[in-house]
Amino acid sequence: MLDTTFIMDLASKAPTPGGGGASAYVGALSSALGSMVGNLTVGKKRYEAVEADTYIVLEKLADERTRLIGLVDEDARAFAPLAAAYGMPKATPEELAEKDRVMQQALVGACEVPLDIMRSCAHVIDLCEFLAYNGSRMVLSDVGVAVAFGKAALLGASLNVFINAKDIADRGRAKAYIEEADRLVDGSGALADKLYAYVLDEIR
């Protein structure tokens, strides 16, 4: 039976898990679907020529899946100090200064974790490119689902980068976060669209 704990926690009014953790979870699902395609490709005579490469892709997908599952919890841990900072007192100049110091530190983690999620999702999408063109044609539609999930996770995590980067006082650091998020969305997001369109054209 499906363990719905994460989904029920996500639906609650608790501050975590939230959009970042959900994005990591969806990214892990993207990797899992890609792995399913790979596992249904190896061992088949028709795909002998790509079997060795498929095993390499499977190993890399497993690594990213493990990383993304870990990032579900890491996102919650990164958000906790930020949530605490919002609740700090600010009645005096000293309290206000301390609140700002803690918040600025927390905002860095709140950007870096979703960027890690984005990097992993981008890699999953890249790996799915091989499966789209070389994997079992019987499960080609699942490659389409995998890249759709990968892009959704990529975009979801990017929103956490953007909302937190806008409040970082160090604008150079904030700019670097935003520019990397934009590059990942533009590059891997475009690849996901290309692969999805290819799958759709092949199966309709």
UniProtKB/TrEMBL annotation:
Pfam families: FTCD_C. It comes from the Bacteria. Residues 5-182 form the Cyclodeaminase/cyclohydrolase domain. InterPro entries: Cyclodeamin/CycHdrlase, Formintransfe-cycloase-like_sf. This is Cyclodeaminase/cyclohydrolase family protein.
